[in-house]
Amino acid sequence: MAVRLDDLDRKILSELQRDAAQSLDDIATKVGSSKTPVWNRIKKMREAKIIGQQTVVLDAEALGFEACFFVLIRTSEHEGEWQQAFLKALLERPEVQEAHRLAGEIDYILKVRVKNARAYDVFYQALISEVRIYNVTALLSMEEIKSTTMLPL
Question: In CA terms, which of 14, 25, 78, 112 is 20 to 30 Å from 61?
Answer without folding.
Answer: 14
